[in-house]
Amino acid sequence: MKILVTAKRVEDPESKIKVKPDGSGIVQEGLKYKINPFDEIGVEEGLRLVAKHGGEVVVVSIGGKEVQEQLRHALAMGATRAVWVNHTGPLDQMGVAGLLQKVAEKEKPDLVILGKQAIDDDQNQVGQYLAEFLGWGQATFASKVESLESEQEKNKVPALQMGADNKSVRVVREVDNGLATLECALPAVVTTDLRLNLPRYASLPGIMKAKSKPIEELTPAKLSVDVTPKVQVLKMASPPPRKAGIKVPDVATLVDKLRNEAKVV
Amino acid sequence: MTAPASNPLLSDRDVDFQLYEVLDTESLCQLPAFADHSRETFTLFLDSTRRFARDVLLPTYRLMDTEPPSFRDGRIHVHPLMRKLYPQLVELGLLSATHPVEAGGQQLPITVYSLASAYLMAANLSAYGFIGLTTGAAHLIQAFGSPWLKDEFMSRMYRGEWTGTMALTEPQAGSSLADVKTRATPVGDGTYRITGSKIFISGGDQDFTENVVHLTLARIDGAPAGTRGLSLFAVPSRRPEDGRLVDNDVRVAGAIHKIGWKGLPSLALNYGEGGDCRGWLVGEAGKGLAHMFQMMNEARIMVGLNGVATASVAYQEALAYAQNRPQGRPAWEKDAARPQRPIIEHADVRRMLLRQKAIVEGGLSLLAVASWHADVAAHGKTEEERRRAGLLLDLLTPLAKTFPAEKGFEANALAVQVHGGYGYSSEYLPEAYLRDQKLNSIHEGTTGIQGLDLLGRKVMAAGGEAMKAFTEEVGATVERARKAGVEPAWGEALNRALQEVVELTMELGAAGMAGEVERMLRHSADYMELFSVLAVSWRWLVQAAAAREGLARGGEGRDFYEGKLAAAQYWLNTELPRVTHLVALCRSGEDSYTRMRPEWF
Ligand SMILES: Cc1cc2nc3c(=O)[nH]c(=O)nc-3n(C[C@H](O)[C@H](O)[C@H](O)COP(=O)(O)OP(=O)(O)OC[C@H]3O[C@@H](n4cnc5c(N)ncnc54)[C@H](O)[C@@H]3O)c2cc1C
Ligand SMILES: Cc1cc2nc3c(=O)[nH]c(=O)nc-3n(C[C@H](O)[C@H](O)[C@H](O)COP(=O)(O)OP(=O)(O)OC[C@H]3O[C@@H](n4cnc5c(N)ncnc54)[C@H](O)[C@@H]3O)c2cc1C
Predict the structure, then answer these.
(1) Cβ contacts of residue B577 below 8 Å, gap of 6+?
(2) ipTM above 0.95, yes or no
(3) B556 closest CB neighbour out of A29, A201, A206
(4) What residues does the Acyl-CoA dehydrogenase/oxidase C-terminal domain cover (chain B) (predicted)?
């Protein structure tokens, strides 16, 4: 079984993120970066699946030389090898999905796992585009069954399960009104939600092994993908600072304010 | 109540600063031993450990503090959480991280390991304690044990299947290991029958792995009295026999109720009550203490790191508390209707926080540079480089052990103080860290013993060569600070203090040579204090230099560097001048406590 997992480089949410005064982007200096947490969950899920069914996890990232850090992180967790699509400059979600499509066609994985979104711009689009481009089934927001009383939880049934013949995958998804279970024929695209698993911590032996694992370099040109963005970023701005709250004397005033000022009830 | 999930334990920015701006840790990778490493492997390892410490270990701290191990049916039952935590800690690769590849290790520089492990200690020192003890015990077998011991014992310890202890202390032999009485009688098959009692043995029993190996100091029958009669033995709680484990007659006689480190049991052990306890000699007979001491620098650096870590986690609590606790208004504010201000706006609270910062980050810097010299002492390019680093390491070790223990305790008390009445309550964490910290001035050689070691041995070592190397290091820092544009007065003050200490040391050395040992050692506690202040002043000057260099590069992160400069100013202006006073005290004939007679109390 071969599983392709994405490993996007994103700003560490713990570093202070500031918008440049001219609104052209964010101040990069002094920022820390990490692997998109949803992608990290994807790597973990991939590793668990191959531990059970055999095969390999291949990680892919798009960006400048620095994304190799995130690829190494995934390799240190246990992925077998990495694909680096070397590209700097603007890129929109469709461009990303286009590049991933070509990588997927080249690698021919049984499953592509992506984060449901990246925590930098929170787009939640790439997985869906990719499934469409590839013409594969998709199961987004793979999540773990929450109720500790449920049969699945008691029997430790994972949220991603291969069918008996390894030709399909059963996915428990988080949806607005609860959980939905989908079955998809393979190959398929799955995106991860937060509660799917707790990613492992890379071990020192794993980190040392990762050094000798191969990272294959590709480019949009080599993959013949035109990545000219269709989405244009006009300007970035911080959200307005939150105003200080006020204390109301009683519930009646609160209800009144909610109804007549905030107009939310 | 558990710590807010946001306690960072240590400042990541500071750890990076110590590694890559104060020191040039990447340059260690030019040494053949560390050639497989790079900043990337360091970063990945630090990342894993600090995340594990914050996400997994920290939430377990209070639980293990409030539910100490219990002693039932002759066995110790530790907190059930250890069953999950220990394998996870092993999985990170901590047990053999710094050891050679041939021994299953990853040859990580101690410098990086030290700073990474500080996060684990800050998060849950007891849980990490089992790792520290096991790696120390296994390392002794790795260095001195027979191939059989390595196969049967060491490899299982490194794999996390068994744990280890260091069993030195006996009721009559604490500071004075020369008085160890535990006996080893040759059985005739190469093994020894062990009889005796040990006390305070940390990790001496647990119920999360199947066996514990006690690296035990004992005296072979007929061996001379004193330290030269001591040998080192590997004594398992259960011994391998015909392919299975059988009871080896090591009994838990009792668990000590402690004020801190509550998750890690410290036990009284009886060996051979039933006449059936076997031990295996590790290394040479009569060299037991020497073998132990070969690992001593590392063990003491670990204690110093614990001191820094315990002060750091409390400092971070206090910092967050001070930013959120509204209390009072500025002295000049007359209007009592105005809202109260967060206490961090009071200068006196900032004084307490800055003192904690100066102790924590000065201590961390001292530990980082001591670890650096440990790496160079073991793997430096030339014999000369290794020898010099070894001398510096020997000199810095008692300081790196004692400063964080003693001043860390003060920092921990300040963290309580910043919390006001709430700090005195067990609903908040600082009181627990204060209790934990106290151990660091007691185990691995009490502060008193460290003071005697520093003055009686370390500064006098190799005909003053260690002192000379230290002087050169300080000189290089003063030069670096000057070039970086640090306040010239700071470097000059450090130079003057160094000069005073060098002169004092020569005088005291001469007194010792002249047979006036009492006079030489009379103020060993003051000497330890003044040398610690001096060494940490050196670390603050080098941090000031690195901060100036950082500011000169421009860009983001100004606040961090300004904070460093303020802490350096605080230390160099308020602490460094104490050296002169303490030097005078050591020189003076001040003899109140030496003259004081027991019956006068
Ligand atoms: C929680 C805990 C865990 C421990 N874990 C271990 C362990 O795992 N393995 C182990 O072997 N031991 C362990 N110890 C023991 C520890 O190393 C000893 O407590 C320590 O060496 C001090 O010995 P002591 O308690 O007998 O004190 P003493 O030696 O009786 O010292 C009492 C006081 O007298 C002073 N003093 C003693 N001798 C001199 C001297 N010659 N000159 C000047 N002052 C002196 C000391 O500085 C101290 O202040 C542990 C102790 C504790 C509290
Ligand atoms: C065991 C115990 C028993 C007690 N018994 C009693 C009792 O019987 N009766 C009673 O009334 N109270 C009692 N107290 C309360 C005690 O007096 C308060 O805890 C104390 O006054 C400090 O107030 P606080 O805890 O709110 O701390 P805070 O006032 O919040 O102080 C927190 C920190 O901020 C500093 N700080 C606060 N304001 C300023 C300022 N303006 N300038 C500079 N620094 C400032 C403080 O020095 C302190 O370090 C008791 C407390 C304890 C722990």
Answers:
(1) B493
(2) no
(3) A29
(4) 286-452
Percent helix, strand, coil in chain A, to 5, is 30, 25, 45
Q: Is B147:B185 a contact under the CB 8 Å cutoff? A: no
CB A205 to CB B93 under 8 A?
Answer: yes
CB–CB of B182/B231 below 8 Å? no
Minimum CA–CA partner of B48 in chain A: A201
Q: Is B537 helix (H, G, I), strand (E, B) or coil?
A: helix
Q: Is B231 within 8 Å of B288 (Cβ atoms)?
A: yes
Residue B172 CB less than 6 A away from ligand 1: no
The CA B451 to ligand 1 mean position distance, Å, reads 14
pLDDT of B334 > 90? The answer is: no
For range B358-375, the mean pLDDT? 98
Give the pLDDT confidence of A31-62 residue by residue, as tens digits: 889 999 999 999 999 999 999 999 999 999 99
Helices within B325-429 (DSSP H only)? 347-379, 383-418, 420-423
| B63-90 pLDDT, tens digit each | 999 999 999 999 999 999 999 999 999 9
| Residue B40 touches chain A, beta carbons under 8 Å | yes
**Which residues of B are marked as active site?**
444
Residues of B in contact with A211 (CB under 8 A): 36, 41
Residue A263 is assigned to a structural domain of this protein: no
B368 CB under 6 A from ligand 1?
no
As for how many domains chain B has, the answer is 4
Say if CB B319 and CB B430 are below 8 A apart.
no
The verdict on residue B487 lying in a domain is yes
β partners of residue B271 = B196, B250
Ligand 2 contact via B417 beta carbon (within 6 Å): yes
pLDDT(B398) > 80 = yes
CA of B411 to the centre of ligand 2 (A): 19
Q: Which domain CATH number covers B52? A: 1.10.540.10
Q: What tokens were used for A221? A: 């040109």
Q: How, if at all, do strands A215-218 and A81-86 pair?
A: parallel
Q: For chain A, what is the domain count?
A: 1
Which residues on adjacent β-strands are paired with residue B254? B268
Residue B585 CA to residue B591 CA, distance in Å, equals: 10
Chain A residues whose beta carbon lies within 8 Å of the beta carbon of residue B49: 201
B97 neighbourhood in chain A, CB within 8 Å: 204
Sorting pLDDT into bands at 50, 70 and 90, what band is A18?
confident
Q: What is the CB neighbour count within 10 angstroms for residue A192?
A: 30
Which domain, by its residues, includes B248?
Answer: 164-286
Which uninterrupted H or E stretch holds A79? Answer: none
User: Residue A194 sits in which domain range?
Assistant: 2-239
DSSP labels, B306-329: HHHHHHHHHHHHHHHHHHH-B---
Question: pTM of the prediction?
Answer: 0.94
CB contact under 8 A, B44 and A205: no
For B463-502, how does the pLDDT look when each residue is reduced to its tens digit (9 = 90+)? 889 999 999 999 999 999 999 999 999 999 999 999 999 9
Do A208 and B92 count as a contact with CB atoms less than 8 A apart? no
Q: Which helix (H) or strand (E) holds A86?
A: strand A81-86
Please answer whether residues B64 and B127 qualify as being in contact, where contact means their C-beta atoms are separated by less than 8 angstroms: yes
In this structure, the answer to whether residues B31 and B70 fall within a common structural domain is yes
Tell me the CA–centroid distance for residue B259 and ligand 2, in Å.
25
DSSP assignment of B49-75, as one string?
Answer: HHHHIIIIIHHHHHHHHHS--EEETTE
